[in-house]
Design brief:
The protein is an all-alpha fold. 75% of the residues lie in helices and 0% in strands. The protein starts with a helix and ends with a helix.
């Protein structure tokens, strides 16, 4: 069953918009605006911007996963990148990949992998460069296939 089958259209919309907030928070953190981590970037963002109470729990959850598991998320992305280095990607592409990877790796029981990948592609279409959607799709698909492969 897909996220679309489990969630109503309003909840899907809130999650999509929550992902856009997470992208902004990550950008703020990584651009040097906040040295203390993603959780601090979230707090600083909330001090100056109003995140809908319907979106905030999901924002907090993904930001928490990313902060707690950033090393593992980045390692999984590095393994899925072909001829690219994570630190050489644009800030937006890196953020989109981290959000998608957090959902793929740590929310698999709640969010079907294809939904996580499609939502990351949508973020890349909205905020990334011309090649970002294809690139994000390729990397997250490779990560997904690596995770599914028998060990």
């Amino acid at each position: 069953m897909t996220e679309a089958g489990r969630l109503g259209p309003t909840e899907r919309l809130h999650r999509s918009r929550a992902r856009a907030w997470i992208l902004q928070i990550h950008y703020r953190w990584e651009s040097g605006g906040v040295e203390a981590g993603l959780g601090r970037a979230l707090a600083d963002t909330m001090a100056t911007r109003r995140i809908s109470p319907r979106r905030l729990p999901y924002v907090r959850r993904i930001v928490g996963i990313m902060e707690e598991h950033l090393t593992e998320i980045d390692a999984a992305l590095r393994a899925a990148l072909d001829n690219w280095r994570l630190d050489r990607l644009s800030t937006i592409d890196r953020a989109v990949l981290r959000i998608g990877a957090a959902e793929l790796l740590y929310m698999v029981d709640e969010i079907p992998p294809k939904v996580a990948i499609q939502e990351a592609i949508r973020l890349a279409e909205a905020y990334g460069g011309d090649d970002s959607p294809r690139f994000v799709n390729g990397v997250l698909d490779a990560l997904y296939k690596r995770r599914r492969a028998p060990r």
